[in-house]
């Protein structure tokens, strides 16, 4: 059985729209400062997280080698797209930021990224 060209076009358009809607529905981290995989010369006084829409930040851990570093993170019910978290006491070394958010669709998204504080970084 052959499918006519107009039917194929309608099916292709429908699939493209479904894919676009499902991609837009998911929460994602658009930008982080310091950025993933970067090396910075000076320990940052804060971490900035920018998401693709309002989210509730429910977890943030700043992990140094073998231990958690202090941050100003406190879970709350306010949904925002931008978060700035103070990071007192950072020092040279490798760090991983572990985060979890609840998006507008109600789904929990968890992820992490890493950066390095290296006074000799270019």
What does this structure look like?
It is a single chain. The protein has 122 residues and is an alpha+beta fold. It has a single domain, classed as Immunoglobulin-like (Sandwich), CATH 2.60.40. Helix content is 17%, strand content 46%. The chain is built from one helix and seven strands. Strands 1, 2, 3, 4, 5, 6 and 7 form a seven-stranded mixed sheet that branches. About 5% of the residues have low confidence.
Quick description:
The chain is of the alpha+beta class and 122 residues long.
| Average pLDDT rating | 88
* Number of E strands: 7
Structural class: alpha+beta
Strand content: over 45%
Can you tell me the CATH architecture? Sandwich
Shape summary:
elongated
Q: How many distinct domains?
A: 1
Which CATH class applies here?
A: Mainly Beta
Query: Helix fraction?
Result: 10-25%
Cα-atom Rg, whole angstroms?
20 Å
Task: Report low-confidence residues grouped into runs of 5 or more.
Answer: 18-23
Count of alpha/pi helices: 1
Instruction: Determine the CATH topology.
Output: Immunoglobulin-like
Give the biggest sheet.
7 strands, mixed
Output the helix-strand order: HEEEEEEE
- What gap, in angstroms, lies between the N and C termini? 63 Å
